[in-house]
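step: validate -> pass
step: tokenize input -> pass
step: predict -> running
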Amino acid sequence: MAAPQTPDVPATASRIEVSRTVRAAPAAVFAVLTDPQGHVAIDSSGMLMGAAGERVTAAGDTFVVHMDREALGDVPLGEYDVTVTIRDYEPDRLISWSVLGKVRPPIGHVYGYRLSPVDGGTEVVSFYDWSDIHPEWRARDIFPVISEASLKATLGILARTVAPYRRDNDA
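step: predict -> pass
step: emit ->
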């Protein structure tokens, strides 16, 4: 039986955190999170359409994500690219990034994951923080763009990706 999940941190006015225990080692989870294609593979929002760039290995590394916001049905941006810049990078423990697109001033929101080894796998915390967004974007009152449910769904896809389903009694 899987370890109980840590309760999610309630959403604040500027941050969402959700967690899930995944039946895989932190290194396996981190491998997905450092691969630009991994971001596309686990995205539950439907906005990430593709990616270009190499696996990230340090804070400051970047890659490009090809986006299409039509899946959200909120802003008709069509297809566009954003540059992901890694902010925090601690192998098998923490990765976070900011996103820079066409809009100016830069928005300033941050996404990321914290990983902790637990019995039977890894506790994965996904977070989305818009506490330091530019005042112009705060005034527009558009955050959060991604919902708590979407972050939870992405964790489900991540779990399926690194540890395909099996019943506890399956070999």
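step: describe -> The CA atoms of residues 108 and 133 lie 4 Å apart.
step: cleanup -> pass
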